[in-house]
Amino acid sequence: MAGTMLPPPRPLLAAAGALSFCLCSSLLLAVADARVHNYTWDISYQYKSPDCFEKLAVTVNGEAPGPTIRATQGDTIVVNVHNKLETENTAIHWHGIRQIDTPWADGVAGVTQCPILPGETFAYKFVVDRPGTYLYHAHYGMQRVAGLNGMIVVKVPDGIVEPFSYDEEHTVLLGDWWHKSVYEQATGLTETPFVFVTAPQSLLINGRGTFDCSLAPSGTCNASSPDCGLRPLFTAVPGKTYLLRIGSLTSLSSLSFEIEGHSMTVVEADGYYVRPFVVKNLFIYSGETYSVLVKADQDPRRNYWAASHVVGRNASQTPSGKAIVSYAFKGNNPWIPPPTAPPAGPAWNNTVIRVQQSRAIFAHPRFVEPMPAGADRTLLLLNTQNRIDGHIKWTINGVSLIFPATPYLVAMKRGMTTAYDQRPPSDTYDHMSYDISAPAPTNGTVRSPVYRLALGSVVDVVLQNSNMLNNKSETHPWHLHGHDFWVLGYGEGKFNPAADAWRLLNVRDPIMKNTVPLHNDGWTAVRFRADNPGVWLFHCHIEAHVFMGMGVVFEEGIERVGKLPPSIMGCGQSKGLH
Amino acid sequence: MAGTMLPPPRPLLAAAGALSFCLCSSLLLAVADARVHNYTWDISYQYKSPDCFEKLAVTVNGEAPGPTIRATQGDTIVVNVHNKLETENTAIHWHGIRQIDTPWADGVAGVTQCPILPGETFAYKFVVDRPGTYLYHAHYGMQRVAGLNGMIVVKVPDGIVEPFSYDEEHTVLLGDWWHKSVYEQATGLTETPFVFVTAPQSLLINGRGTFDCSLAPSGTCNASSPDCGLRPLFTAVPGKTYLLRIGSLTSLSSLSFEIEGHSMTVVEADGYYVRPFVVKNLFIYSGETYSVLVKADQDPRRNYWAASHVVGRNASQTPSGKAIVSYAFKGNNPWIPPPTAPPAGPAWNNTVIRVQQSRAIFAHPRFVEPMPAGADRTLLLLNTQNRIDGHIKWTINGVSLIFPATPYLVAMKRGMTTAYDQRPPSDTYDHMSYDISAPAPTNGTVRSPVYRLALGSVVDVVLQNSNMLNNKSETHPWHLHGHDFWVLGYGEGKFNPAADAWRLLNVRDPIMKNTVPLHNDGWTAVRFRADNPGVWLFHCHIEAHVFMGMGVVFEEGIERVGKLPPSIMGCGQSKGLH
């Protein structure tokens, strides 16, 4: 399996070279104008009613979601995070930001830092080196479920022209929401018998959802709370075009998003321009962002539904996420619900149309990122479930990842060889004989190993789905920290490295992303250059799944990482370190 | 106020000298036979139904309360605490153990150690140098409310005769219990408007209580759960005498405990033998322990109620704690509830009988601990509420205590002068003119100071109660870490150091304790010798109150503290320390 996985490269588009120049000059521009944005965030529990049911949420300065960070390419962001959670730690990940030269600011407790203790303040400082739509969220245990999340919008510098135009932009943050606490969810996942998280009680659009209060115990739900219910998403002026920056930070759900009566033209994915394509429903997986253009071209005398629905999982008890797209028309009340029934959304179990959309995403012809022709190393990663010591765990090539008490970054930089598992995990699995539709194997282990990648090497990863212990397969959005990857392709069934799989891979104009779905009963292949010194998590973005061990850790160029800030230390074996 | 507060000493009982010898020889004996008891505890959230309502509890090896630690005087206890709370830290205090030479094992996050992070193991190692009944519990934020607590029973060495005899002994751990989480309670205390914790939903005896499930949302309460409801407390053989080691770790409630139809003879308090006295109701405050003798001298053909009731606070919605004292009699089912109605308990607002009982506790004549004749320093501590920055706080002489990010013990030992507040708190308040029945003053501040005591000096502390912001006064059990104190006396109204207060103080045979009630509308005076190098918390043992700042910190002999274990470090300014 070592060496090149792909056949010799076909010539890259001529446009790619031009792009390369274009990016450089934009970066220069950005640096010249670079600003520093300072934020001070108090992280605390507050009572919130995002879907009318009142419960505690982890908030940023009292709000959930947190504020949108807005900056321009090349700017520096400084967020002083003050943990006021009383007894619970935290860490915040800046999702999609590669953290070049600042691997300690990636915000993954156990990988890049010790968690931030109650009463302490931690300063995240990093450069937003690429324009696009990004996210942030808690990255500690399953804490993201409790509400700490938000968006990051990085604009192109003045003078740089994007390959599309619009009149106004808006952010659309999608989520799912439970009435039980994170602790209750996590306890179910660790107890025997195992209890998986339920379907979410609601879907949120920009932090608001609707729940039928008659289903809740009295006194816990207030249908007229100002925090919840329908709200205008934006006001459309007839004839104008809107850019919606859409991000999903669901904890569990794959979603379909649509705006009733309006088509959406997808123009950006995870910070990269795509060859524009039109959808009615945008399928979006946790950790992904898309920018879409919407033209206000419908009857302006009424309002329209914006709606999100769970797909890929039967969540019929979960009401759809709903908001109002209101038209600016004389006499039209932007808060009046549309006269129509909300969209029903696509069938939750129609995998085909979801895979089709994944396959329809290519780099914009003028913005193809040059891809290395072949890989130096290929990882074939089997995603499956194992029952280990009586607990259900996710394993990748037989390893269920548990974060060590000492963060990998500190342990590896300081040569603490007892702080994590020195036995390397396997680059492959028994792909010749493994039956991906059979019950899971029983030889999994819970460990803390790391894939050590040669700095600058090119790595292909093929994620291989398989049946869970319940003999079903489901979609997993995989997110890579510290890098973007080229999406080589998606396939059904089992990836066969020796045979026809090559034909399916797109080496001509693959989109780059940081999060990609691994569809049920199939595989997904990506390529990245291990050129960012640090230690980086690669994991399923479903909170319960990574909690159950569904991730791997990559290290590259640890010797090139700069001096670690003492603020990331203090846990495990780093208690006594300067 | 400095110097001696008390008049010249009256001669101590002749017995005291004899006791002194007796204690030494018992200690020698103990050391000769000393054993090491090793425990490994996993601390995790588990679903529990102590009062039939199912909710998450912080457990020790899956149980709440945790196991009773049993040892003999002079033994060493080692508890390896493995934090499996996922995102929440912990620390465990060994309540009543003075931690001589091991101040770092006192288990108070923020004072004696950094909290134990999820995934980490912390070893508490200490000697139980005195026989008696002690407690343990979480000491981090308000985490004790979530259930981590238990008892420590230290026996006298073989050959040592106690001043009473009995046939069998049993432990009785009293608690109160809420259906809301710690997070919900803490959020209410910090939000605006302020929401104080409700009356508890139930009272627990040895971790079991009863709640009327018809009051709970469907599916949350199971009246036939094996975890809850009535259970035999012990089986009495007619004519035999039982020692009940009773401890209270309520989070809020002062309690009355009784056994229907049986009187109780109090023989020990907080590890010290008392001049025996008989009660029908034992008033016990959070953090206190008492041993009582109960003789099985009633009609053996039936069972009897053991019951706890809230006193000092109107908690009419809280059902009493109930258990069964069953008689070993042919045909008698130990699980059959007694034929009588459960005791109603004393009137909750009868302060007089509670104060009377406090005043009835003296040292056993043969075990009077010699007390220094006078004090080197006197602290007159006004307990009151302040509204600070819109929040209701408890203040002591105007200071609402907040723990610094760096534990005091580390900060002071290492000379980190910026880690805590260098401005000393005041030894007194304006006792001449302050009106303890008037609304609280408005000049309180939230700070992290410390009282620095001369090593070996004798300190008198007079706790002065006053009205809260609601113009009422209530009972506060004050607990001192690292020391026992002589209880000099209790008084009504305002303590006047210059006048008749002296007459009320008992210098002849004061009992020693580690927890003492400060009754409503009154004062309590104690004396201790600051002879234990370390940093020690002294605080109200009501979880919500210490969370609101109701405590002070004492330091003595920090230069005599041995080398700090690195395991207590890692937070605040101790991140970079060996």
UniProtKB/TrEMBL annotation, chains A, B:
<dbReference type="InterPro" id="IPR045087">
    <property type="entry name" value="Cu-oxidase_fam"/>
</dbReference>
<dbReference type="GO" id="GO:0016491">
    <property type="term" value="F:oxidoreductase activity"/>
</dbReference>
<dbReference type="GO" id="GO:0005576">
    <property type="term" value="C:extracellular region"/>
</dbReference>
<feature type="domain" description="Plastocyanin-like">
    <location>
        <begin position="440"/>
        <end position="557"/>
    </location>
</feature>
<keyword id="KW-0479">Metal-binding</keyword>
<dbReference type="InterPro" id="IPR008972">
    <property type="entry name" value="Cupredoxin"/>
</dbReference>
<feature type="domain" description="Plastocyanin-like">
    <location>
        <begin position="43"/>
        <end position="156"/>
    </location>
</feature>
<dbReference type="GO" id="GO:0008447">
    <property type="term" value="F:L-ascorbate oxidase activity"/>
</dbReference>
<dbReference type="Pfam" id="PF07732">
    <property type="entry name" value="Cu-oxidase_3"/>
</dbReference>
<comment type="similarity">
    <text>Belongs to the multicopper oxidase family.</text>
</comment>
<dbReference type="InterPro" id="IPR001117">
    <property type="entry name" value="Cu-oxidase_2nd"/>
</dbReference>
<protein>
    <recommendedName>
        <fullName>L-ascorbate oxidase</fullName>
        <ecNumber>1.10.3.3</ecNumber>
    </recommendedName>
</protein>
<keyword id="KW-0732">Signal</keyword>
<dbReference type="Pfam" id="PF00394">
    <property type="entry name" value="Cu-oxidase"/>
</dbReference>
<dbReference type="InterPro" id="IPR017760">
    <property type="entry name" value="L-ascorbate_oxidase_pln"/>
</dbReference>
<feature type="domain" description="Plastocyanin-like">
    <location>
        <begin position="168"/>
        <end position="327"/>
    </location>
</feature>
<dbReference type="InterPro" id="IPR002355">
    <property type="entry name" value="Cu_oxidase_Cu_BS"/>
</dbReference>
<keyword id="KW-0560">Oxidoreductase</keyword>
<dbReference type="InterPro" id="IPR033138">
    <property type="entry name" value="Cu_oxidase_CS"/>
</dbReference>
<dbReference type="GO" id="GO:0005507">
    <property type="term" value="F:copper ion binding"/>
</dbReference>
<comment type="subunit">
    <text>Dimer.</text>
</comment>
<dbReference type="InterPro" id="IPR011707">
    <property type="entry name" value="Cu-oxidase-like_N"/>
</dbReference>
<keyword id="KW-1015">Disulfide bond</keyword>
<keyword id="KW-0964">Secreted</keyword>
<keyword id="KW-0186">Copper</keyword>
<dbReference type="InterPro" id="IPR034267">
    <property type="entry name" value="CuRO_3_AAO"/>
</dbReference>
<dbReference type="InterPro" id="IPR011706">
    <property type="entry name" value="Cu-oxidase_C"/>
</dbReference>
<dbReference type="Pfam" id="PF07731">
    <property type="entry name" value="Cu-oxidase_2"/>
</dbReference>
<feature type="signal peptide">
    <location>
        <begin position="1"/>
        <end position="34"/>
    </location>
</feature>
<keyword id="KW-0677">Repeat</keyword>
